[in-house]
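User: I'm new to structure prediction. If I give you an amino acid sequence, what do you actually give back? Let's try with this one:
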Amino acid sequence: MVWINGDLVPDSEARISVFDHGLIVGDGIFETVKVQHGVPFALTRHLRRLAASAAGIGLPAPDLEAIGAGSLAVAGAARDLPFARLRITVTGGIGPLASERGASGPTVIVAIGPQNPAADSVDVVTVPWTRNEHGALSGLKTTSYADNVRAFAYAREWGASEAIFANTAGHLCEGTGTNVFLVMAGRLVTPPLSSGCLAGVTRALVLEWSGAQEEDVPLTALAEAEEAFLTGTTRDVQPIRRVNGSELAAVPGPETRKAAEVFAMRSTESPDP
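Assistant: Good question. You get back a string of structure tokens that encode the predicted 3D arrangement of the chain. For your 273 residues, that looks like this:
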């Protein structure tokens, strides 16, 4: 089932206009929510970030109560899936074939699909492109994902499954759909939001539960780290095995293992922390 602008319909009947601004110019925002047996995880936090992204790109404030109800309905209809990815998308709605928005109002879609569990570890590569921490979309979860598509393809070409960006200052920033944590001199750190990285929901929970610190570090620090891991909605805490083909010393290291164990325990205690 798919929820579109308040209506719950079979996915075979779900339709949007070819003039939707999300399709025409990538004018939209989204959230990805982990769902297990029909129960979404951290839905309130995801909806809160959706509202922040809408404000950031100038979309009308989304009706979070309605979207939350639609999300629960879609998730509940897929309760037979042991692990799923729920996607909430809000676009600028029907508009002209140009950058200017129309007056139709937003399009809101909630859809769901099966998701494979994350691998035990991940190989990453750094990419030759940067995140612009001063850009208009910095830190927002928008549908303008072409940079990530290109970077992810680059990672695949090099035998990895995630690409890591620096920002324009040369500091470690984020992955295409992940945040990065690393251990240096026994300290667990992650780039601050000022680096231009997304304010990941899993990132925030790991910060709250692990005692990690936010700190600007050079991109080169990742390959030199004692241990490192990615966080993301469908990954939770995923150890990094190799950076640019070179294996890290500890996979998973003690700090990574501790963060993963605490995250698993605390997320089991409440589906909406």
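You can read the tokens as a compact description of the fold. Here is one thing that stands out. The first helix runs from residue 21 to 25.
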